[in-house]
Design a protein that fits this description.
The complex is a heterodimer of chains A (186) and B (581). With 186 residues, chain A is α+β, with helices and mostly antiparallel strands. Chain A contains four helices and nine strands; from the N terminus they run E-H-E-E-H-E-E-H-E-E-H-E-E. In chain A, strands 5, 6, 7, 8 and 9 form a five-stranded antiparallel beta sheet that branches. Chain A is elongated and about 55 Å long. Chain B has 23 helices and 20 strands. In chain B, helix 1 crosses helix 2, helix 12 packs antiparallel against helix 15 and helix 16 packs across helix 23. The chains are: A alpha+beta (186), B alpha/beta (581).
Chain lengths: 186, 581
């Protein structure tokens, strides 16, 4: 039979886009999952990832609509196009899940993460840490004579870069929130 | 309008309002208030089981044979954990169940109380959804939501965990209509653009095939009717998974038999060689596809499924249609008829010619015997002697299950209850009781192997107590037949732990529970013995001693494609080496 002119997953109601399904190239996707804020909902989402062997690179969750009891779970995951599609479809069938958005393919998105860095040191190292913090627009949120706690906000890449710079300057502890993301525009 | 009542009374009231007439269960400390409420009413019948796993399988049999949700009531801790296998079975086979479990009082949760288990945590991955109810005022709504979730979209089991203090507490009862279920509304109508595309494919295909599954049965009897109309009107061949048997009648002219690992030669080769595959409510299970990379390499694949996550999960498809099978079939028929009922007649005639060639292989032929009962022969005789009766068949899991699927014919949906996805040995006997409870006057037969059957044999007491005249047709080869077969073909004939030692005297066992016991070992006596079983007004344990070393063919060794099927004649030549999955 002649080749059929059907694009993969091309129905208007389909959740599938037109990336090559067979590709074994893995890519990172940021998913925003809107859920009912009820007991156990996070366990359902995490259990899906662990039970089916998917990756979680980062996860954040908080109630975003107190009146409607809705929480937003932001998950950064990694997989082939087929796996990412499966993850979205599997998330979509969890009963308290209302919406699943793939911010990576649904247009431009803003991604931000907040991190706290404790850097200990004296003398030139301490001065250098403070100078770099200024370049990264980090805030000093705690200070002793031997240490600083910096607060940095930015993309995960920026935070990685700041961590690399702080390491030789006496970095002793890091706390990161994971990624929060929103699509750009309306 | 709301009425005040206790949580326990609400459970019973909600069941009544949901049209439930029977519940399968086992009492215990954490559900005593509910049992007290059950005691004080006569609308809902309670079937007392002997083990909670069996209660869930009974509810599955009830649900699968009626199209209604099955209901279960178990206590906390071990009651709930015993139900887990049944829940997982129902989840894999998309059977709607509503299971109620008792829980320790809310103030004791988390203290490792007596008979406490984290039931919600344990059952989260084996239910479609579950709820812990901590407030009696919310209980009624949760129960109504539970029925809604279990039965809409792709059906499945749900569980409601009920702490004992909530059962005692008084709250406001609300009826099913007041329950908020609006957000869980799976899409039932398929995309018309995609359906039209499918109709175009149907009009032009040279080598089409319908590959149907349990989704057709779950969609309801109307879906089976529409499927028959479409298959007969197009003249396309049809095959089905284990779960979908009966949706299209086995006596229908386009029927090719089951496909898959132990499917028919013609069905598997037609799947391999087709140019258009129309998957209706099936899910490309690994027992169906064999080696995925070589699965039906030259075909355009359409997939109709109500669960979007089934699509592209295993086999990438060209034309996905998310929707309820019944609705989509209706639209396909409407559009196909409106466009002039076209099919590629010349191509189709050639295709059937090829299929008829494959049929000549007679893949279900086996070597008969006048000395020993061949399991295939036993099922052929069972089929011949029960055909045309108001018959329901359940099975356990293993060789006998595959033979039953091959040699018994189903002309109607909801007549075949088997554990497909999970493959639960011990499913068939309790399921047969559940079917019989729903259909008291029907002939309900569990085709079993002796090893599977022993896994839930304690339910003999249940069958006696509730006068369910179930027939247990045990193909007794004193082996774990399918395990033995794989060891024979793939493990050098080292039969590690695969024989049934120390079996009971089944006739005496039957009699000890007030059943009738029949033993048969001579092919000449088989017909009379089967008739004796059918005609006995009460439960029967039929010990059918069969050939001990029979293998089930055809067989696609796992990891092989459809066109590398083993037939009985090739088996000796098969040198092994298939992937062991």
């Amino acid at each position: 039979m002649a080749a059929l002119n059907i694009k993969k997953g091309s129905t208007s109601h389909s959740a599938y886009d037109l990336r090559d399904f067979h590709s074994d190239v893995e890519s990172s996707h940021t998913l925003a999952v809107i859920v009912d804020n009820e007991a156990g909902v996070l366990a359902r989402v995490i259990g899906l990832f662990s039970g089916r062997g998917y990756n979680i690179d980062s996860l954040t969750v908080a109630e975003v609509d107190h009146k409607g009891h809705r929480s937003r779970i932001t998950i950064v995951t990694r997989g082939t196009a087929a796996v990412i599609d499966q993850i979205k479809a599997q998330l979509g069938r969890i009963v308290p899940v209302h919406e699943v958005h793939d911010l990576t393919v649904e247009g431009q998105a803003v991604e931000r993460e907040l991190a706290l860095f404790k850097v200990a040191g004296t003398g030139e190292k301490r001065v250098e840490a403070l100078r770099l913090a200024d370049i990264f627009r980090a805030n000093v949120v705690d200070s002793t004579l031997e240490s600083f706690v910096f607060e940095v906000t930015g993309t995960p890449e920026k935070i990685d870069a700041f961590a690399e710079l702080m390491r030789p300057l006496g970095l002793i502890d890091v706390a990161r929130t994971g990624v929060a993301a929103l699509s750009r525009g309306v | 309008m709301s009425v005040q009542m206790t949580g326990a009374e609400m459970v019973v009231q909600a069941l009544k309002d949901q049209g439930v007439d029977v519940i399968f269960g086992y009492p215990g400390g954490a559900v005593l208030p509910i049992y007290d409420a059950i005691f004080q009413q006569n609308d809902i019948r309670h079937i007392l089981v002997r083990h909670e796993q069996a209660a869930v399988h009974m509810a599955e049999g009830y649900a699968r044979s009626t199209g209604k949700p099955g209901c279960v009531l178990v206590t906390s801790g071990p009651g709930a954990t015993n139900a887990v296998t049944g829940l997982t079975d129902a989840l894999m086979d998309s059977i709607p169940l509503v299971v109620f479990s008792g829980q320790v009082p809310t103030f004791m949760i988390g203290t490792d109380g007596f008979q406490e288990a984290d039931t919600i945590g344990i059952t989260r991955p084996c239910t479609k959804h579950n709820w812990l109810v901590k407030d009696a005022d919310k209980l009624a709504e949760v129960i109504h939501q539970a029925f809604h979730v279990a039965t809409s979209g792709r059906p499945g089991p749900v569980l409601v965990d009920l702490p004992k203090d909530v059962q005692f507490a008084t709250g406001a009862y609300t009826g099913p209509k007041a329950a908020r279920v609006d957000h869980y509304k799976p899409q039932v109508k398929g995309d018309i653009e995609a359906i039209t595309k499918l109709v175009e494919l149907i009009e032009n295909a040279e080598r089409p095939i319908f590959y149907t599954g349990g989704g057709v049965i779950n969609s309801g009897t109307a879906a089976s009717q529409l499927l028959r109309e479409l298959v007969d009107a197009t003249g396309f061949p049809i095959t089905s998974t284990l779960m979908g048997l009966g949706a299209y009648p086995a006596s229908g002219k386009n029927w090719m038999g089951m496909l898959g690992m132990h499917g028919l030669y013609e069905a598997n080769l037609a799947m391999h060689g087709c140019d258009l595959m129309i998957n209706i409510g099936a899910r490309f299970d690994d027992r169906i596809t064999g080696r995925v990379s070589d699965f039906s390499p030259g075909s355009t694949k359409a997939h109709i499924d109500i669960d979007a996550s089934s699509i592209n999960k295993i086999v990438p498809v060209d034309l996905p249609i998310v929707g309820d099978v019944g609705h989509v079939l209706e639209d396909i028929l409407k559009i196909w008829k409106a466009r002039g009922r076209k099919v590629n007649k010349a191509g189709l005639a050639k295709w059937w010619g090829k299929i008829d060639e494959w049929k000549k292989v007679r893949c279900l032929a086996y070597e008969g015997s006048s000395k020993v009962i061949k399991p295939q022969y036993a099922l052929e005789r069972l089929e011949a002697l029960t055909k045309g009766r108001d018959r329901y068949i359940t099975t356990e899991v293993g060789q006998h299950q595959m033979w039953a699927a091959q040699y018994l014919g189903f002309d109607a949906p909801n007549r075949w209850m088997t554990s497909g996805g999970l493959g639960t040995m011990g499913y068939g006997f309790p399921a047969s009781i559940g079917v019989q409870v729903a259909h008291p006057d029907a002939l309900v037969i569990n085709v079993a192997g002796e090893a599977s059957w022993l896994m839930n044999m304690q339910e003999m007491g249940t069958a006696t107590q509730f006068r369910t005249p179930v027939k247990q047709f045990i193909l007794n080869n004193e082996r774990l037949g399918m395990v033995r077969q794989w060891q024979d073909l793939l493990h050098g004939g080292r039969y590690s732990q695969s024989w049934s030692e120390s079996l009971p005297d089944f006739v005496k066992l039957a009699e000890s529970f007030g059943w009738k016991g029949i033993i048969c070992s001579d092919p000449k006596d088989l017909d009379d013995a089967i008739m004796e079983m059918i005609e006995h007004d009460g439960p029967v344990l039929f010990d059918c001693l069969v050939e001990k070393h029979e293998n089930c063919f055809p067989m696609i060794p796992s990891g092989k494609p459809h066109n590398e099927m083993l037939l009985s004649a090739d088996a000796a030549a098969f040198a092994g080496g298939a992937a062991l999955v």
